[in-house]
Sequence to fold (1138 residues):
Amino acid sequence: MLAEYRATDSSFDEAVTAEGVLRPSWQELFQHLGGLSFTEVHRRLAQAQHQMDIDGVAFNPYDARGATRPWSLDAVPLVLEQAEWNQVALGLEQRAKLADLLLLDLLGPQTLLHEKILPPEALFAHPRYFPAYHSLIPRPKRHLQLYASDLARSPSGQWWVTADRTRCPFGLGHILENRLVSSRMFPVPFGMCNVRRLAPFFITLQQTFRELAHRYRENPRIAIWSKGPKSRAYFEDAFLARYLGYALVEGDDLAVRDNKVMLKTLGGLLPVEVLLRRVEDHHCDPAELSGGESYGVSGLLEVIRNGHVSVGNSIGSGLAESPLLMAFMSNICKHFLDQDLLLPSLATWWCGRPDALKYVLSNIDKLTVRRAYRSEDEPPYQPRAMSGEAKARLIERIKAAPGMYIGQEQVNRSTAPVWEQGQLQAWSLALRAFLVAKGDTYETLPGSLARVSPDPDVLLHNMTSGEKSQDVWIVSNQPISPVSLLSVASAQVELKRGGAELPSRAADNLFWLGRNVERAEQLTRLVRITLQQLTSGEAVESAASGLAYACQQAKQLSSEKKIPSSRAALARQLVVNVLNPDDIYSLRNVVRAAHDSAMKVRDRIALDILRAINDLRVIFEANLSSEEVAATEMVSALDLALTSLNAISGLASESMTRTQGWRFLDLGRRLERAYQTARTIRSLIPLQASGVDSTRALEYLLQICDSFMTYRNRYLANMQLAAVLDLLVTDDTNPRSIAYQLQLIHQHVEQLPRPDTQAGMTPEQRLALSQYNAVRLSDVHELAAKDNRSELSSLHKVLNRMLEKLPELSDAISGRFLIHAGLQRHLASASIAENPNPGGMQA
Amino acid sequence: MTQRIAYRLSHVTTYSYDSPVRVCHNLVMLTPRNSSVLELIHHRVTIKPHPLVLNRREDYFGNTLHAFSIEESHRQLTVSASGRVEVEYSELPPAAQTLPWEQVREAVVAQSDPRWLEACQFRFNSQRIQASAEFADYARVSFQPNRPILEAAFELTQRVFQDFVYDTTATNVNTPTKTAFELRRGVCQDFAHVQIACLRSMGLCARYVSGYLRTHPAAGQPKLVGADESHAWVSVYCGQQLGWVDLDPTNNKYCNVDHIPIAWGRDYSDVVPIRGVFLGGGKHIITVSVDVAEA
Fold:
């Protein structure tokens, strides 16, 4: 295998020397790989890929094209020798310290500006600079808990820094994931090579963030403050939260109260001591910074100033990632440390200086051009690869605002062996190294995020497609002692149960997940049986029209349009409606809503449930397009859907611990099931029941409510309304009956947290109990009896009342537990302009 | 001749809400700023209902700021700022004798002006003000080569006053400067933003000043526009000797004893008199009363 590996002559190769000899640190790995057949490597790689896809399904639902993690993991790890890495680490540690000193200075005494080491543009012209950052100087005086550096190796073997990352560097979660997969893929060489472990770094990270706490240093509440499921980093946020044991929160989960940052949970507001921030600086506090953004926490900056919460990295630390700073890094290093840079930056020219501008414009084809500040993720420009016209436009833009651009030397990146199409190929390499603050210095992660691509240009930008990632093995000639995060705590862990710390937002999503999964299930049965009847030859007309009416009631058929008289047309219309992406009530969108809720709480539910929900969504989104699906095809799709739905129900009841989270999920399901069952009964057994083939209608009803078999076992083929109603309404041994649901709802509501001061029953307790009692006290024979106008008035009275009260109960629960915070708005400022904008809101 | 005028200030802002507000977090910038021409005798900011947290501090530019949070349910919020200041008349040199504007600009850019660092942060784009060729074209009519800076800057003030219509319905507090410039309409905030944008587009340093105007004009003088509310104007850097000179494009005036500065910043966003967020509340109505009387 190695014999065929050809490194290019012009670049440094990580695995082989210029003479084509394998470097010593790679020998162990290649010896092992050489002993594996192609098929074996393929098998292992496929398995690893599958594992990552499963994680991917769980973690990046919003982008089917996979923009959150476009790469795949390569079969070959990247091997670096420890002695060499230690040298790099020294340079990295110096650089992290410099970045921190730089921030302390720019947001403090500004000696770099006074002494003209940095141009004032470095701070004041930054498009995301806010003077408020100056007042947030943290204690201890450090801005950066985490720092990352992008590295490239030139043909001489020298490592160069291509970018600094100081805000909330992206990639740690991916490094962990790569390691988990790669160590499983090649356990033998991994064990033999003395690969440095990653865990000690994360132990330091935990230690560092713990020490940021102003109170409860032993066990402070630390949260990863994420931008939420729609952000690219969410996979990593969720992954890190699980790995580090931190709460995963979004801006909406947090609130400032009583001069503290509080986590909104079911049990009330709990103070948070430390936030590991993943939100952009200027979005952190809408009350003081840009405003109008949904990621932030209003009032946060004032709490930081008062010293009641710590945020790492500090708010404002993103200012240190401006590419223009690289032009001055070596002078900054001399100023602060009186040293040379151990790890040089790529030569950089800031066009704000006339001589630099001249240089950049006259050498533009040899340079990479980037924005001087990092605000949006903008790809760099490669003028040599641009059309004449595009290049001219770029030059015009640079001339118009030279201070906004830099030119940067290009680096001929090193290559590394990559397993591609059954052979080893030499691809260009980019590394991202991570450091964490420790004491008064920084500790380097013995590993990196390695990205490889056949096109070196794509590596300059962030995480683009067409590239792969490699696990980075820093190998030592000494044996490695295994460490795991689990062994950190020497003291015994305090055993915990319950889950009053469940954020209200998570409870809300679990509740709606329950409701929508259940709704999807009932709708699926209803639509399936309706389509079956419409497409089978023996259906009875009146029964089919009863089902059509039930579909209308369930909003799967428009009640405005006339029901088509032809069965085929009706079936057609039903299929179109069920799959209608524009109708919020369509089954397709109910499934989508369930999926969305599940994704928002994916850190709280089992992977298997997520997978089943994803399968379900795929059935409605990918496999069916409403233009072509025949009714019969739809029926088989619905069969599949029911399989997934059953899997979800089974997993939810068998594999979730009975925490408050589960309780909200189950409450949602029970409420929805009671509601749907009542509505289905009302639709299929009309007030004036005459003229309807009641035997058929009852059969359908039992099937939709999934109680047909039970009925057959009890009563054989003898269809009677009273018996059916007993089974579906009052029989509390049937898990499908309304009584069964109401009993559970009543029990759940009794178990919900409530203030100790509460006297008497809460509205939701009262509603739950009264509904439960109403059903328990009803007499099925009376319900099944017609009144003197030969109408089923008592049945309908009970059903109508239930259909009115259940939504009230749902609202009462939401109102008390799920909506901690209303809509937050900005004060208008009438004091300047007399004409506040409509509604008077600034936001 | 030194002339000193004492003023009694009273500024009451009331927010009335449709439904109760449960929580609010606010920042208030209403305390006049001490300077060589202004002495703050006394001043206090009172908030009703009583805030749970109230901090007074200086912001990055040295303006006084009150930060407060209220966590009791309320339907009305009142912020009252009252106090007494003394303002001293300041003599400006004849505009024709000031430095050529390019010289002022170059001294800051070349960092040879001893006050370059203080001045230069007001030279760059800020949240609400982006320099552009359009602003520069408008400004250039006044900024002819080698013209004394104050002469050019004051002519610009006059032109903004003449070319723009004071119109309280054309813009709102969030109207971009560019839009106000195109409309040729707006209120004091827009006038100030437009002139600052013009000055910065010429490479000069200019800041936004919020403050008050005397409510009752001196004998024989007309009442000034914007006297019954917070006002805003422009301050332009004229070099080391002369420093910052305040100009009021809404009233076509040099600022002097009729103007009482509260705070300065790069634009309105840095010196918003009252800002914040609140939960609940429904619709809200704001009433403002400002009284600045000679005492």
Remarks:
- Residues 95-268 of chain B form a domain with the C8orf32 fold fold (CATH 3.10.620.30).
- The longest strand of chain B covers residues 4-28.
- The two ends of chain B are 20 Å apart (CA to CA).
